[in-house]
Design goal:
This protein has about 425 residues and is mostly beta strands. About 5% of the residues lie in helices and about 40% in strands. The protein folds into two domains: about 180 residues, no CATH class; about 210 residues, no CATH class. The chain contains four helices and 26 strands. This is DUF4241 domain-containing protein.
Length: about 425
């Protein structure tokens, strides 16, 4: 099998063109630097590629897209570099098109979505009639040897051909398309040689990113309205002093206090001691049945470790969690089933969570409460968890020297809100 290889920013299936073609030399330099580029692999004599590789080593990511004769993507692999020289297959998506005229990703196109995890687990969702039909959820039946790919050096893309075709890499003859060579669709390999003038059309998957974590603890800060029913902006209303959180070991646990089996502590610890804890709320006006209502939400909880300004944020992780396995918009968080979250030291967590009196009655002031553990000297401080049950991330703030400034449990209520500027705030 002869495979023509073209490098560029990406592939446009509508026009059958390589977006921003670049030379092999430039692609190699990007590969070495971890910068983003794409590889288009076409079987000789076929206008559509058999595969497009989207490479971004700085993100430990390679996406492999397979195309059929009609130019429709029918298979997708999300690969992550979790070990030197090996890629883990984090996600597989497959589409089946009943007719040649069916559009790419049509609602009634059959699909199978598979999520895999390095610990050997995974899940599979089958939708034979696409989004318009029912779905079957099962465990992923992918053996361990098929969860990993061992790519060769740069420019040896036979492994990718074998991945999308199910064939053998030994049967592949890779040939670079010379710069300036007219392609079958009439475009030229050297159009926009530097590749900088064309938008790639893809980007590496980005996990959930922190948003407004400092601003949510500044009373009076205004954000865009939370929904169409609001008649005014979302305003940070109260910064509640929840007392001192005692951390005798400095190993922090975030969890639902009603759980009998609390979460493991985060891998990043703080110095043992007592730290101020704050709970932030935001409010907005709404009209309902002719009445003006004042709606207030709990938007975040913060452990204040130092008074230094936060220069950078990172997702708090537990043992075994790896941000490189997160897909677009995903995060690791703590689960909530009782509408309540808490922070507690690992030494006290087992004794303070899961008891009958752990989650207070709704009549308690603000729903904020504290429990003491005389044995460890630690305590638990609980609070209402935003809109209720779900999963919430915890972010670790660091100052310019890399020292921890705070831990913030983000209720995700501001993840789509825009911070209003001074003029916007005045107009609101």
């Amino acid at each position: 099998m002869i495979i023509d290889v073209t490098y560029g920013e990406g592939w446009d299936s509508a026009s059958r063109t390589v977006l921003g073609p670049i030379s092999r030399k430039l692609a190699a330099s990007r590969d070495a630097a971890g910068e983003q580029y794409a590889v288009v692999l076409r079987e000789r004599g076929r206008p559509q590629p058999i595969a497009v590789l989207n490479v971004a080593w700085a993100h430990d990511y390679v996406g492999v897209w397979a195309y059929d004769e009609q130019g429709r993507r029918f298979r997708e692999f999300d690969l992550r570099r979790l070990e030197p020289g090996r890629l883990f297959c984090r996600h597989i998506a497959q589409w089946s098109y009943a007719t040649e005229a069916m559009k790419e990703f049509a609602d009634d196109a059959g699909r199978v979505l598979i999520d895999l995890y390095p610990d050997g687990t995974g899940g599979k969702v089958a939708q034979p009639k696409g989004a318009l039909g029912s779905s079957l959820h099962t465990l992923a039946d992918v053996p361990d040897e098929e969860r990993w790919v061992s790519p060769s050096a740069f420019a040896d893309w036979a492994w990718a051909v074998a991945l999308v075709t199910g064939g053998l890499a030994d049967d592949v003859d890779l040939r670079d398309v010379p710069e300036g060579t007219p392609l079958r669709d009439g475009t030229a390999q050297d159009r926009k040689r530097d590749g900088r003038a064309t938008v790639p059309g893809w980007c590496p998957p980005r996990p959930l990113r922190p948003r407004h974590l400092d601003e949510m603890f500044v009373a009076g800060t205004r954000f865009s309205p939370p929904d169409t029913h609001a008649t005014g902006p979302y305003v940070v209303e109260r910064i509640i002093d929840a007392g001192l959180l005692r951390l005798p070991t400095g190993r922090v646990v975030a969890c639902d206090p009603g759980w009998t089996d609390p979460e493991e502590p985060f891998t990043v610890a703080v110095r043992p001691g007592s730290y101020r804890m704050q709970i932030a709320t935001a409010a907005y006006p709404v009209e309902h049945w002719g009445k003006s209502l004042h709606m207030e939400d709990f938007i975040g909880a913060r452990i204040v470790v130092s008074e230094e300004p936060t220069a950078a944020w990172e997702l708090a992780l537990r043992p075994g969690e790896d941000v490189r396995t997160l897909r677009e918009g995903e995060f690791y968080g703590f689960g909530v089933d009782t509408g309540t979250g808490c922070f507690v030291d690992a030494a006290a967590a087992g004794r303070l969570t899961g008891g009958e009196d752990t989650v207070p009655d709704h009549d308690s002031a603000d729903g904020i409460f504290a429990l003491d553990d005389p044995e460890s000297g630690g305590n638990l401080i609980g609070y209402p968890s935003g809109m209720g049950d779900g999963s919430y991330p915890v972010w670790i703030g660091r100052d310019a020297e890399g020292e921890v400034t705070c831990l913030v449990a983000d209720m995700l209520l501001l993840r789509r809100q825009d911070l209003l500027s001074g003029r916007d705030q005045q107009d609101a």
